[in-house]
Amino acid sequence: MLSYDFILLFSGLFLMGLSIYWISSAVIGNNSDANQLAWASGEEPIESKSPIINWSRPLVHNFTLQHAMKIKNPIYRKKIKHKILTAGLSGELNVDEYIGIRILWGILFPIALLILNFALRLGFPYSLCIALGLFGLAFPHMYCTQMKTQRYTAVLVDLPFYVDLLALSTKAGLDMFEAIKRIVDKADPSVLADEFSNVLNDIKLGSSRADALNGLANRLDLPEITSFVSVLSDSFQTGANIYDVLQEQSEQMRVERFVRAEKAGAKASQTIMIPMMIFILPAVFIVVFAPVIIQFFYGGI
């Protein structure tokens, strides 16, 4: 019967050999960064808002990117690409790096920690390595979700104001896309201003108006934007008055914004009941009934 120490020794040697193989294959293998990055624009990635990604990028390029490129599942890659696109991270992260970060922090780092823990007898619990691995696998998804939520909030705040400006500009005689250009030039930097700027760039590169607007809907992936783009596309096809369409859209968006605010207020009033029941009501009961209980036990009642 195999002893526990022998199993640990064998596991440690196996993990050490696996790590040496990965490092050797990363150093000796063909690690052409230009081919591995495969950015659509042909440019280097911009600095990420996440310091973890910035710190991880050299390690990913040296150790895990070539393994990430071997994952060819088209459905999985398409899902990741859509996730990066809707999070607004296309300039700072691509599919290969996304997968490489998951491999680095979800597999390679926990294995290295296990080896060090076994070889140096650091005393870390094995559950810590498992927890770090799970966090590493989930980190890129969590980061994309966080950035998408921030974009969603920013767009919902700015969209009615932008639609009002578009309606006033078209009423003054400007073409729809001339109005977008005028607003983008004068607006403060924001998510919606950047996306409208991308729409204008797509049109300059030869895309049709419908395709440029559909690209906006795909990048933001929000029901409000999808509805807005659909209405604009229909108005272009039918020749409807664009001012009337934008005015109706603006009123509808403000009504929806008011409804969302009412729902958030109702939800907050329900949520606040939980801390009240846990913290406030017991304090009230203590203040009201504590003197009675004390007098009952010590006052001779």
Keywords for this structure?
301 residues; mainly alpha; Receptor-associated Protein; 2 domains; 80% helix; flat
Q: What string, H for helix and E for strand, traces the elements in order? A: HHHHHHHHHHHH
Largest sheet: none
Instruction: State the share of residues found in helices, binned by percent.
Output: over 70%
N/C terminus separation: 72 Å
User: Rg to the nearest angstrom?
Assistant: 28 Å
Low-confidence stretches: 28-42
Quaternary organization: single chain
Mean pLDDT: 82
Percentage beta strand: under 5%
Number of strands: 0
Tell the overall outline. Answer: flat
Q: How large is the count of helical segments? A: 12
Q: How many domain units?
A: 2
- Secondary structure class reads mainly alpha
Model description:
- The protein has 301 residues and is mostly helical.
- The protein has 2 domains: 8-28 and 48-149, no CATH class; 151-270, Receptor-associated Protein.
- The protein contains 12 helices and no strands.
- It has helices spanning 4-28, 33-37, 51-68, 74-86, 95-120, 126-171, 176-186, 191-204, 209-220, 223-238, 242-271, 273-298.
- It is flat.
- The termini are far apart.
Write the layout of secondary structure elements.
Blueprint: H1 4-28, H2 33-37, H3 51-68, H4 74-86, H5 95-120, H6 126-171, H7 176-186, H8 191-204, H9 209-220, H10 223-238, H11 242-271, H12 273-298
Offer a quick outline of the entry:
The chain is mostly helical.
